[in-house]
Design brief:
Blueprint (H helix, E strand, L loop, with lengths): L1 H26 L4 H15 L5 H14 L5 H29 L3 E2 L2 E2 L11 H20 L5 H25 L14 H28 L4 H28 L2 H4 L13 H9 L2 H10 L5 H13 L2 H21 L9 H11 L5
Length: about 350
């Protein structure tokens, strides 16, 4: 069933690539060689994932309307979903370059594909530009067209701000890691910018705009819950980066060697003794495998697996309580938020 859902969703992408081709080749008279490069980038970077963000636009619209979508509605909501996936693709291309990641979704990171290299820096904003091309083609006559456009712009900027927070927190001095920014407040702020808005609020807000129920009250309710859900998701992502086999995860975890201000690092610094902190200061953020092993040993000593399990159970219970209190009088449905939570709870990649 899940495979069928994804196949149907990916079928829409094929049509959208043709839309992009028509704009590039027919209107802009783009040379064939350049279009072929762009098409290769689109297929490599947008396809191959679970597409949870994109599919969530479709699912949210169906739940908001409380009925099955017509073929036309499915195509339009899937198109909005693919715009979210294109934004994600752009972020991942740049993220892999900045983090030096070698794999993504079980494939080489785009910049490591033979013949690509740093051309990927230019390919990333092209993926984002495709969003606005498709938005104009398919939604220019929609009453929420401007709101949709502004939502994508805000999601992009917020995520870029979050990436800056992330990169600045991971800086080292001549001695080792500077853990000054590794605390709950800094972590929560970074996640609010980097993950929660575009991964959680954006898909649901797009569905609400499409269905005509994006009142201020509904957007406010959804954003508060989805922000908390995004924090849980990022903590989960940080946990999987360290404790999940790369064959299952689809990429090699790099948070430790990159010196990321991760949920695990914040928890470790809260719980460690003087000796363990010295190990973290001397080895966290170092590229040597031996240093990574020493950090992992401290994480195990501090029983961070158990700490995470306890956190997850508490956070999910808290989110369910928040969802139960949602006011549905203006068209927002609790089921939209419950469905999103079910997609990420206990995931393994």
């Amino acid at each position: 069933m899940a495979s069928t859902r994804l196949t149907s969703f990916e079928g829409v992408f094929t049509t959208l690539v043709e839309d992009i081709k028509a704009q590039c080749v027919e209107q802009y008279e783009l040379p064939p060689r350049v279009w072929q490069w762009f098409e290769k980038s689109l297929n490599h970077n947008a396809l191959g994932g679970k597409c949870n963000r994109g599919l969530s636009v479709v699912d949210a619209a169906r739940l908001l309307l409380e009925r099955d979508l017509t073929p036309g509605e499915y195509f339009q909501t899937a198109t909005l979903g693919w715009m979210v996936e294109l934004l994600q693709a752009m972020m991942l291309v740049l993220d892999d370059i900045m983090d030096g990641s070698e794999t993504r979704r079980g494939k080489p990171s785009w910049y490591l594909v033979p013949g690509v290299g740093m051309i990927a820096v230019n390919d990333a904003p092209m993926l984002e530009s495709a969003i606005y091309l498709l938005l104009k083609k398919h939604f220019r006559e929609h009453p929420a067209y401007v709101d949709m456009m502004e939502l994508f712009h805000e999601a992009s900027f917020r995520t870029e701000l979050g990436q800056t927070c992330d990169l600045l927190a991971a800086r080292q001095d001549s001695v080792g890691m500077d853990f000054a920014a590794f605390n709950h407040d800094a972590y929560s702020q970074m996640v609010a910018y980097k993950t929660a808005y575009y991964s959680f609020h954006l898909p649901v807000a797009l569905a609400m705009l499409y269905c005509g129920c994006a009142s201020s009250r509904n957007l406010e309710q959804a954003e508060s819950i989805l922000a908390a859900m995004g924090t849980y998701f990022q903590a989960q992502d940080d946990y999987l980066d360290v404790f999940t086999d790369s064959n299952i995860l689809g990429k090699v975890g790099t948070d430790i060697v990159d010196g990321k201000c991760s949920w695990l690092a914040v928890q470790a610094l809260e719980r460690c003794n003087v000796k363990q902190r010295r190990v973290l200061e001397e080895n966290y953020g170092r590229k040597e495998h031996a240093c990574e092993v020493k950090v992992q040993a401290v994480f195990h000593e501090l029983k961070l697996k158990e700490v995470y399990t306890e956190y997850e159970d508490g956070k999910v219970a808290e989110l369910r309580q928040m969802i139960d209190k949602v006011d549905e009088t203006e068209g927002l449905k609790k089921s939209v938020l419950s469905d999103f939570l079910s997609k990420i709870h206990k995931r393994d990649r």
